[in-house]
Amino acid sequence: MLVRHIINIVSVIAGVLLISAVSFNKLPWWSLLVLVFLWLLVTAYGVANIRSGYFLKSLNSNPDAEGKKIAITFDDGPDQNTLEILKVLDKYDVKGTFFCIGKQVEKHPEILNRIIEAKHIIGNHTFSHDKLIDLYGTDRFTEEIKDADEIIEKISGKRPLLFRPPYGITNPKIARAVKKTGHAVIGWNKRSFDTTIPSEKVILRRVTKNLKSGDVILLHDTKSITVTVLEQLLLFLQRNNFTTVTIDELFSIQAYV
Ligand SMILES: [Zn+2]
């Protein structure tokens, strides 16, 4: 049972008790509002934080990983900038995992194949990555995942089994969609904020601070700042004897059908 189910049951019981207390004038009417507010707060936290596991189980890190293993993941490509990322990874002989957007794959099929030829792993990051995608119903969200799988398979011959929800947002509809498609949901535990933070130093500090075996780093191959950060990160990993693995290897799961 997920924490969400326990919280919902407790909230309903608390609600019933509060209603009877209010009707017997033991508590003020607004105590019910407090309960609703707390419930909304917890639910919003669950929606915004994939690591909370509030709506679905996701793989965010593997603390049992032996031998100082780190997985570096890149979201939102393929993009022209991905080629620069690939050069850095190649220079240090490191393999990464790329969560690709279907419509970007359509735009840059040759870059998708370059990623695969270089022995990196591809995952699904929906077809459109629409700003309002988290408001989509279960069927429409399921189509988003399937459409991305199809375009990736059409171009590369590989059908992904790894899925990362856009913005790391989860909700009951996304949970149902993923249950239907059967993908493993991949989160992270080291978020770089490389799409919003303008300082390479700050981004690097965010991803290297308290870094430990089994951690999953989130970067974006669409950002030029990430190319510089990546090189510094790989030097840091080298200096500290970390090895870099792909997501399927870190969690001992299959990347493709
Ligand atoms: Zn994304």
TrEMBL record:
EC number(s) stated in the UniProt entry for this protein: 3.-.-.-
PROSITE patterns of this UniProt entry?
NODB
The protein's matches in InterPro entries, at most eight in alphabetical order, are given as: Glyco_hydro/deAcase_b/a-brl, NODB_dom, Polysacc_deacetylase_ArnD
All copies of domain NodB homology, residue ranges: 68-245
Listed GO MF terms: hydrolase activity
| Classification via SUPFAM superfamilies | Glycoside hydrolase/deacetylase
Membrane spanning stretches: 7-24, 30-48
Q: Name the Gene3D superfamilies on file.
A: Glycoside hydrolase/deacetylase (3.20.20.370)
At the top of the EC hierarchy, this enzyme's class is hydrolase
Listed A to Z, the keywords are: Hydrolase, Membrane, Transmembrane, Transmembrane helix
Instruction: Name the PANTHER family on file.
Output: GLYCOSYL TRANSFERASE-RELATED
Q: What is this protein called?
A: Polysaccharide deacetylase family protein
